[in-house]
Write a structure and sequence with these properties.
Strand 10, helix 3 and strand 11 form a beta-alpha-beta unit. This protein starts with a strand and ends with a helix. It contains 13 helices and 20 strands. The chain has a domain of about 220 residues: Rossmann fold. About 50% of the residues are buried. Helix content is about 35%, strand content about 20%. It has about 425 residues and is of the alpha/beta class. The strands form six sheets. A six-stranded mixed β-sheet has the order 6-7-18-15-16-17, sandwiched between helices. The chain has a five-stranded parallel β-sheet with strand order 14-10-11-13-20, with helices on both faces. Strands 3-2-4 form a three-stranded antiparallel β-sheet, with no helix packed on it.
Length: about 425
């Protein structure tokens, strides 16, 4: 199910101190450092050799921290926009699409760029690993990891809020190596993360790591590698909707690597990240010039999450404050945190489908809506080189062409279950 190949040569580096160290297999934190920090992969190969599209996501393997490749991947596809660009009066709008669009060689069966994370993370995971990988998700990440782990027989435990289970759809049954548990109705993504953290206190489980996992960030960074390879240079502006904000951090890191490569220019893309109003904790912190996310009551946060359509953007603990996170990325590269209402994202999604020819996910519609507003208010100019990261799409098309089945939870937990209860349930599952 997997293919061993010459492992990518790299070291890991603490963003906080600059210290470099070896990857011990699943290193998620800088050793012997007390202060929280992200760690970054430093590759031996400074100029990337991009392989042909038949390699899927692994066409960018030079800059992925992996030691094996897995079957079934697809890479993000970048193309120059005609319809949307003409409508907005833009001469250099490029769309990077991660989803289902066979006509453009985009073949993500989960229709989400979260597959780029899953194929990279699972390519980093040792074939000898005996522990079960644990992933918390509000939907798209769970669907991606379920598909990749099912196809490649990798044991996986998913933690998802009960109210989001409808996003766990597939075109074929999921292998029994993948099991799903949920937090009860009324919970949100943060509660699913809390459940996964409790699970990882038990011996037989290993945390995927979220933004701490360099493989997750490098996988998402392939969107920017796709754009730079297709365009031949680094874009001026990068538009993406964010939940954890890990995708935007990944874009910044890929940008820095492309500068070091030397063949794509030396500019830093302005990071134009977006949220779905009224859930706008990143915008509130950024506009206040605060490294820390401003306090938000848990119950109030859950109420706001219920309002928004793009629920995958509702992470209450984003990768923002930590050294190497979004605050540092935007301070270095420039940019802004923008917002779109439900009404604006619906309108933008319909416009994209009409002008470009495919449906897109609500989060991608948020990014599209904020691009439209940035053009209208003069934030971007007509000749600026713009990358619009469409992080999911083609779902309507995919569902029309396939019979759909759903993954069902093995157990639904209270928001804060006791460890003994958790252990009793999971011992029966694994």
């Amino acid at each position: 199910m997997s293919k061993e190949f010459k492992a990518t040569e790299y070291l890991l580096q603490s963003i906080n101190t600059g210290n470099q160290f070896n990857d011990e297999g699943w290193t998620l934190e800088a050793p012997d450092e007390k202060e929280p920090t992200l760690i970054r992969a430093i590759y031996e190969k400074k100029q990337i050799d991009v392989k042909d599209v038949s390699h899927g996501i692994y066409r960018f393997a030079d800059w992925l921290p992996i030691h094996k490749t897995l079957k079934g991947s697809s890479a993000p596809v970048t193309y120059k926009s005609n319809g949307l660009a003409k409508h907005l009066g833009l001469t250099n709008l490029y769309i990077t699409f991660s989803g289902y669009w066979p006509e453009k060689d985009a073949n993500f069966p989960t229709c989400s760029f979260k597959e780029t994370e899953a194929y990279s993370v699972c390519g980093r995971l040792s074939s000898e690993e005996k522990k079960v990988l644990v992933v918390a998700s509000a939907g798209n990440t769970a669907r991606a990891f379920a598909r990749v782990c099912s196809d490649n027989k990798i044991p996986l435990l998913l933690c998802v809020p009960e109210d989001y289970l409808d996003v766990l759809w597939f075109n074929k049954p999921i292998n029994d190596c993948v099991k799903l548990i949920a937090t009860k109705s009324g919970s949100d993504y943060f509660d699913a993360i809390h459940l996964s953290n409790l699970v990882c206190q038990l011996d037989k489980f290993i945390p995927e790591g979220g933004s701490k996992n360099v493989a997750r960030r490098e996988g998402m960074g392939t969107t920017v590698l796709s754009a730079a390879h297709e365009i031949g240079k680094i874009p001026d502006y990068y538009f993406q909707a964010v939940g954890s904000s890990t995708g935007a951090v990944s874009a910044w890191e890929a940008n820095l690597r492309l500068i070091e490569d030397g063949r794509f220019g030396n500019n830093k893309m302005k990071l134009m990240v977006s949220q779905n109003e009224p859930f706008k904790i990143l915008q509130d912190a950024w506009r206040a010039d605060s490294r820390e996310i401003l306090p938000m009551d848990d119950d109030e946060a859950r109420k706001v999450v219920k309002i928004i359509i793009a629920k995958v953007l509702s992470n209450r603990r984003p990768t923002y404050s930590v050294p190497g996170g979004l605050f540092d990325a935007m301070k270095d590269a420039g940019g802004d945190v923008l917002t779109a209402t439900n009404e604006e994202l619906i309108k933008a999604g319909k416009l994209f489908e009409e002008l470009e020819g495919n449906d897109i996910h609500p989060a991608a519609a948020v990014a599209t809506a904020t691009l439209i507003k940035a053009v209208n208010d003069g934030t971007v100019n007509k000749d600026d080189l713009i990358m619009l990261n469409i992080t999911g799409g083609g779902e309507d098309k995919f569902k029309r062409e396939n019979d759909i089945v759903y993954l069902k939870p093995r157990h639904i937990f209270e928001i804060n279950p006791g460890l003994e209860t958790l252990k009793e349930v999971l011992d029966k599952l694994f």
